[in-house]
Design goal:
6 helices; single chain; mainly alpha; three-stranded antiparallel beta sheet; about 10% strand
Length: about 160
């Protein structure tokens, strides 16, 4: 891989991450209240690299949209912490985004492997990185299993 193509892949990955960070934040908070450093740590554990300067504007926007609220809580160490929680409206939006995510996974699978790839579940063969699937591979790609969808989902975190 050339340096230029590597740079392009990194740029695309960064843009894809930015596009799903709001979904990731709602997903994390749907499992429990959290403060920003915990959210950042969970995103980093899932290889969704993010910095505070990226997270805080997203949290503020989601709060202003009524998707999140927050409360201040005393910390055993240092200043009080701002804990974010998902609102009922945030849960509704998360449910909608879950459906959008599933649609996108199916759409990308179809684009990548050919028509019908998202519906078929017979084979598990995937083309090697950088290769194009041949006609038989395109028709043999399975539908996303629950495990695959969990792996592809931004709400999944890596176990240590």
């Amino acid at each position: 891989m050339t340096a230029e193509s590597f740079k392009n892949v990194d740029n695309v990955k960064a843009q894809m991450r930015k596009g799903i960070l709001e979904y990731c934040i709602l997903s994390i908070l749907s499992r429990g209240d959290s403060y920003a450093p915990q959210i950042i740590a969970e995103l980093k554990d899932a290889d969704m690299i993010v910095v505070e300067g990226t997270l805080y504007p997203l949290l503020a926007r989601q709060k202003n949209q009524g998707l999140l609220s927050y409360r201040w809580e005393e910390s055993p160490q240092g200043p009080p912490r701002k804990y974010y929680m998902i609102t009922d409206r945030g849960r509704e939006v998360l449910g909608e985004l879950d459906g959008v995510w599933e649609e996108m996974v199916a759409q990308i699978r179809t684009i990548r492997y050919g028509t019908g790839a998202a519906e078929e579940g017979a084979a598990t063969k995937t083309p090697t990185e950088g290769s194009k699937p041949d006609a038989s591979e395109a028709t043999q790609m399975p539908a996303a299993t629950e495990a695959e969808t969990s792996e592809a989902s931004p709400e999944t975190t890596k176990e240590n």
